[in-house]
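Regression test case RT-17, inverse folding.

Input:
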């Protein structure tokens, strides 16, 4: 059985650990905050049992759960064939992790980033083996969304790119190839543009978050609206991603001051039951007037 380490046990890292374990790999889950790993393991328990109850899991949930272990130490990466990085969207933080992984892992280990926006070439800079660093960008919630972007950095080898596409297929996901390493890649550039436009219209008092979501669902055919997607992803993550775009010189995605205020007010999305909507425990939601925070 191949070993995989997932670094960062938040919303995405936990989901990646789950789908990798579902595909039969042994997974080690690492986070600098041990409580994040505990929370993630609880979520994986809940999610695998729910999938099992719907007949959507190949192996028994307990078996899948048994393939995932918490690890307090990055050094376990020395025994892994794959490392998936899913820490905060921060170029320096990610780059430091890749330098460390590159130092400790055997040269055959493939090092993948789940970054939403930062070019892989930048994350690989300063490493000795940039050819084994690749973007493998999952969509959230990972256990449910089939799309994964596989991004070729300027120095990613053809063999690593091909192995990553095959790995994604082995997870029963659909890979799309991103052949040029640009900020935001493909899916996020398109979806961030819709979010940005919707956000600016709401902030200007022209419409409301729920009407933008309805417009995209009933008018365009999206299954979920841009504000619902943002609440699921986490508004703190959205803010970090827009800051990363700005740092990369793309002003069009620069963080809006009102988005900063929403995050400062503690409205981080579904994980705290309040974001662009307020959520009740029974799943009801009511839109929040973001202009009230101006
Ligand atoms: N949220 C989404 O929908 C989404 C979708 C695709 C990609 N992404 C990308 O995935 C990455 C993670 O996003 P997320 O939503 O899971 O964020 P998150 O805030 O839920 O989780 C990030 C985790 O990283 C951990 N972490 C921070 N520094 C660390 C370190 N030095 N070592 C180990 N762990 C560390 C944090 O403790 C936290 O648990 C980001 O790059 C984000 O842009 C997010």
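Golden output:
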């Amino acid at each position: 059985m191949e070993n995989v380490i997932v670094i960062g046990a938040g919303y995405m890292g936990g989901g990646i650990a789950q789908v990798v374990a579902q595909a039969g790999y042994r997974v080690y889950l690492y986070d600098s905050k041990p409580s994040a790993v505990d929370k993630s393991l609880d979520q994986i328990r809940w999610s695998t049992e729910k999938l099992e109850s719907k007949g959507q899991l190949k192996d028994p949930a307990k078996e899948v759960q048994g393939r995932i272990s918490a690890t307090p130490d990055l050094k376990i990466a020395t025994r892994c064939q794959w490392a998936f990085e899913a820490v905060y969207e921060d170029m320096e933080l990610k780059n430091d992790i890749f330098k460390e992984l590159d130092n400790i892992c055997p040269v055959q280990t493939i090092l993948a980033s789940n970054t939403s926006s930062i070019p892989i070439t930048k994350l690989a800079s300063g490493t000795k083996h940039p050819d084994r660093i690749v973007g493998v960008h999952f969509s959230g919630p990972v256990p449910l969304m089939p799309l994964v972007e596989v991004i070729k950095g300027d120095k990613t080898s053809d063999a690593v790119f091909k192995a990553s596409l095959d790995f994604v297929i082995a997870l029963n996901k659909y890979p799309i190839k991103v052949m040029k390493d640009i900020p935001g890649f493909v899916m996020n550039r398109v979806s961030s543009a819709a979010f940005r436009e919707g956000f600016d219209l709401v902030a200007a008092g022209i419409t409301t978050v729920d009407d933008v979501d309805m417009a995209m669902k009933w008018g365009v055919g999206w299954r979920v609206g841009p504000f619902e997607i943002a609440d699921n992803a986490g508004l703190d993550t959205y803010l970090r991603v827009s800051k990363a775009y700005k740092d990369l010189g793309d002003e069009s995605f620069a963080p809006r001051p009102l988005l900063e205020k929403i995050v400062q007010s503690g409205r981080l999305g579904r994980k705290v039951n309040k974001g662009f909507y307020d959520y009740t425990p029974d799943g009801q939601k009511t839109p929040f007037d973001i202009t009230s925070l101006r």
